[in-house]
Amino acid sequence: MIMFEDVNKEYFLTRRKSILALKNINFSINKGDFVSIVGPSGSGKSTLLALASLLDKQTSGEIWIDGTKTSQLKDSERTNLRFKLFGMIFQFASLTPGVPLLENVMLPLLLRGEKRQHLEARALSLLQTVGIKEDYTSHLPYQLSGGEQRRVAVARALLKRPEVLFADEPTSALDAVTAKEITNLFQRLNQQGTTIIMVTHDRQLAKEGTSLLEIKDGELLKT
Ligand SMILES: Nc1ncnc2c1ncn2[C@@H]1O[C@H](COP(=O)(O)OP(=O)(O)OP(=O)(O)O)[C@@H](O)[C@H]1O
């Protein structure tokens, strides 16, 4: 599903100064895997997630997604591939401010031209799945707790039935009970066939996955 071949990522700070955030990374992720990416702060986890989800480009090396060499794709092709296959949950700012919850869940697909009446029933059912009560659906994001917002973000990422779900610290800043609920939800999704790739600081949570990618100073320790 996703394969990295000798991937490097360099951030250029000034013309002379740069940081090599990922060094010669090789690994592959198969359909149905549940991968946890762990490592110290600044080790390159978010960078790896950004490259694997096609949000950012590698400086050198090849990233294969579903049999496609991504280095040769145009920006519009990368965006389409990302939209077709991937759902994303970020640590912050996953919801659009000022937009009621139900619309928020549907927004990415509405913006792609899909009809509201085709989306609404599934959006409501996903909100229920993630534990958001029906009378909350017209609330605005700021009226929810951080944990509730995260759950709505999960529903939003799932609406298009992504083959791969990327999550950056999905349980950070959540209480233990909510964190466990999110973890259980991920496990259910994975059992139903969704590939999950998750960055986490939480070693306990990382053990829930089927495999571990450990990064230190931009290098992969084991796969
Ligand atoms: N846009 C950027 N421009 C310049 N340097 C960056 C950029 N993004 C990340 N870096 C640098 O690349 C390295 C890896 O950062 P990254 O965010 O991938 O680490 P991380 O493991 O996700 O850290 P954390 O756990 O603290 O979120 C760090 O040294 C960071 O300062």
Automatic annotation (TrEMBL):
Belongs to the ABC transporter superfamily. It comes from Anaerobacillus alkaliphilus. InterPro entries: AAA+_ATPase, ABC_transporter-like_ATP-bd, ABC_transporter-like_CS, ABC_transpr_LolD-like, MacB-like_ATP-bd, P-loop_NTPase. This is ABC transporter ATP-binding protein. GO terms for cellular component: membrane protein complex; plasma membrane. GO terms for molecular function: ATP binding; ATP hydrolysis activity; transmembrane transporter activity. The keyword Transport applies. The keyword ATP-binding applies. Residues 2-223 form the ABC transporter domain. Keywords: ATP-binding, Nucleotide-binding, Transport. It comes from the Bacteria.
